[in-house]
Amino acid sequence: MISPNIPADIALDIVDPKAYADGDRLDRAFQFLRREIPLGVAQPEGCDPFWVVTRHADILEVERNNDLFHNGDTFTTFTTIEGGEQVKKMTGGSPHLIRSLVQMDNPDHFAYRRLTQPWFMPQNLRTLEPRIREIARGFVDGMFALGDRCDFARDVAFLYPLHVVMEVLGVPESDEARMLKLTQELFGSQDPDLNRDGKEVGDAEAAVASLQSVVMDFMMYFNAITEDRRKSPRNDIASVIANGQVNGQPLGHLEAIGYYIIVATAGHDTTSSTTAGALWELAKNPDQFARVKANPALIPGLVEESIRWVTPVKHFMRSATQDTELAGQKIARGDWMMLSYPSGNRDEAAFADPYRFDAERQQNKHVAFGYGAHVCLGQHLARMEMRILWEELLPRLDSVTLDGEPRNMLSNFVCGPKTVPIRFEMH
Fold it and tell me: In degrees to the nearest 10, what's the CA dihedral of 341, 344, 345, 349?
């Protein structure tokens, strides 16, 4: 059993959902760790000990060694001892409520990823660009119709990527509000404004039961989609999943549902968070807004910087498959590890002036999409959606300022702005 050497207050900060809503508190914790204990062991109360990987270079090292550091052998996201026991009780011993690409290692990961990968490659996405641009224009027109103020997160950023991904997946527009609600209940399970129960998370049994009920709702919905697409396949990802085969066999039920859920949730929520976070920063930094507006060639840089800045996926967990060494520390087989992406994306050794939002940043090799075999499947689609939205919105947006205090959601796993109130002038 590894012994903790990270102070208890810092260990609490890096798992407390409230710290992720309060960026300053989290930044201070990770700054301390990168400086003093860049690869250390945390053990918050009620938790198993785990290594905290805070530096950009060390995160890349773990990400590129997929056989040495596994995703699926134990919990893929952080959980308490009690929470983990509840999950295993509900699943009959598995640490995973769902089994998606995120919870898989090779050979399964490669085989399942290959099923939909062609959909998400740049050459296929180019054929979708005219339709995505049409959707983006519709949302820009909708923002203009709101007058001179709106909540950019709720009125635009949450809805635009949702519509794109649901169209690609094959979910009818009439069901988009339901998919958004389920996504927010899943990723916002620690936030009383978003979770199913509408209150602070109490005991682990209730929290896991709430999550399981969300997963069951997804399951019921996508069971019907599967049935439909097997009878009448279409040109959408749902048809690929419903009729797909891996190693000559149809997808298992758990794996098919996991596939649907990851596309239907991560496929839009992370892009929404990044888009909302970008406008939050542009509203705070009029000079940045003016420069990007005046020079559309800066838009791809704005996209990359907003991905680094928000880093919507806060961590994934790995476990060592054998004794090894990382950054001078001896890691034992079975040791649990947290890859802290927000820390990697603020690493002073990897980024100049990392606490400054800079749309003109030249070197921006962020780790927000992960790296290596598990790099985000939808990264090219996410970049394209954001680029197109800014290409359509910025020429028409004459000014923008904050109209109240933006707030982040409470979550130590997937987290971004939940409200970004703005005043604006458009033509």
Answer: 180
DSSP H helices, 56-96, are: 56-64, 81-91
pLDDT tens-digit profile of 12-56? 999 999 999 998 999 999 999 999 999 999 999 999 999 999 999
CA neighbor of 229 nearest in space, from 245, 243, 246: 243
* CA angle 150–142–415, rounded 5-degree value: 55
Tell if the pTM clears 0.85, that is, is over it. Answer: yes
User: Tell me: the pLDDT tens digits for 193-207?
Assistant: 888 878 777 677 778
**Are 164 and 268 a contacting pair, CB within 8 Å?**
yes
Question: Locate tokens 């919905």: which residue?
Answer: 221
Domains of the chain by residue range: 8-347+376-426
Of all residues in the chain, what percent are helix, strand and coil, respectively (each to 5)? Answer: 55, 10, 35
> 78 near 316, Cβ under 8 Å?
no
Q: Are 310 and 273 in contact (CB under 8 A)?
A: yes
Output DSSP code: residue 373: G
Residues in the chain: 427
- Please tell me the class of the 8-347+376-426 domain: mainly alpha
**At residue 326, what are phi and psi to the nearest 5 degrees?**
-140, 130
Task: Write the DSSP symbol of residue 251.
Answer: P
Q: To which H or E segment does residue 184 belong? A: helix 176-187
Q: Are 425 and 399 in contact, with CB atoms under 8 Å apart?
A: yes
- Give ∠ CA 276-383-337 in degrees, rounded to 5: 80
